[in-house]
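Sample entry copied in:
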Amino acid sequence: MLYLAEVQKQKGGLLSGGGKTELKLLACQRTDQNWSTVSEEVIAAEEASKLNDGALVLAELNPNRQVQRIQEAGRPLVNILQNFSRQLEKFKLKEDEIDQWKQSLTFQAQELNRREMEMEARLEQLQNMEDELQQLEQQKQEVDTSRSDIERLQGEIERNRQELEGAWEHLRGEQRRLEERQADFKQGTVLDEEQSRAMSELLNRLSSRVVPTETVKQHLDVGFELIEKQQAILSPHWEQLQQQKTAIVQQHEEVERLSQIFSDRQNAWQQGQNSLVQQTAQLQISTAELKSKQEYIQILKEQLRNQEDLYQQIHTLAATSGDVVLGQPVDVEALQKMPLDELQKIVQDLEYKLQIDASFVHEQEQELKYKQETIEELQNKLNQASDQDHINLELELRDENDHYQMLNSSLVGQRRNMIQRQNFLKQHQNILLRRQGHTVADEKEGNQINLEPILLRIETQRQQHSQEIQKLEREIEQMRAGIDLAQGMIDNQTHDLEEKQQELKAIEENLLSLRTATAQCRGRVNLYEEALQPIQDCLDSLRQKLQGIGESLDKFQETGENQLQVITQIRQTLQSLISQPELLAS
């Protein structure tokens, strides 16, 4: 199992000799991305004696808690922190997406609540309309009842008028007979007692046939009162109808105003959309130019890697062939005088250090190989990625390239040091073998090949390529900054356009709702007016008829009074005739 540990060295005393090296365990790797703290356990590890006190290392322990492998923890910790940073960036992007979804759901919920409230308001309006229609139906029934009563009164008045006409005819006949008798009286004809009694009875009957108009007038007043009550009920409805007509006019003006606002904002949104399309096209051109420079810098980096490989191969060739001596010079005379045991110990220490360096260089080369595979995989994903994932993949590819360059640069010096250690160890081994009596072939200086000009030329080309790469990287950084700025502006403008589009949608829905409400209100007003107007016309017609009946009743009353006056005059004339003694004697 892999642990993160700290190297601790304890200094030995004067009698105990050398110090003791231990590892203090700090954390344990559970999975590839999961580390957990452990109790501060201390394990002896002489393998870490070459490391500095307090250094952080990665130690692999077997089940018996023995150290199997030790590796410096600097580079792996950097990788872990970089992975952690990338995970944080991904989590932040996910949180932004979640926030956008939350805002969208909140807006949809508010819109649903608003529409639900509108539906409830419309249902309430429909209920009020139904109640008003029921009231109008009741009023219509009352008007019909009043019309029946008025028609009944009109029939009674007509019958009374006919009876009055008959009485008038009878009165005229009696008056004619009275005139005939008066003529006879002038001729000497007189009335006897029986005729006088008959005339009195006729006059009494005629006076009793005069129809009284008080009852009819009372009924007529009741009819007028009912009509006024119905009119008092209808008047608030007419006022409400007028208010609704005024509201329709105001709603129509509001519809016109919102239509103008919607048209203006739609034109502004279209202009912004056209500008966004142009900026997006320019961004695509800049992105294509950036991509071409990135491809060119990849070619230069590949050439630089090839030059570094060639440089290392030449160094390796120089180290293994023995024709070129690299590294620090060896003091042969001092090694010849040194005790053989001490020389053997020095050779063993050099072999151990070389083994550690070789193991570390091998691990770094494996990690460099993995980085190269990761870069190639990311490059393939980037070539096939969509616009949404393109930026994240570019950032990740940039980080991996930086890590690759950093690791490769560190490997150059490590390989060089390892080759120098190999040459240094080889010289010590040759001296040790000679002192032990073994035969060692002498290296002749005449056969040595001078590779220094080639290495110098390769180094010069490497520096030129490195400078060109740095220049391109600065240009790429500037282009990326410009692209990021343009992308930010495009994102902001896109967000603004989306907000404006949402506003346009809200205005359009509000406009549609207002138009629908206006149409419904206009239909309701028309229906209201169609229901009220016949009732009002009926009331006006009944009022005119009652007024006509009232005028006829006044004339009828005047005629009745005239009839009574005539009857009174006839009665007085008849009484005067009866009271004359000479007429009675004759």
Summary: The chain is about 80% helix and 5% strand. Residues 452-578 form the longest helix (127 residues).
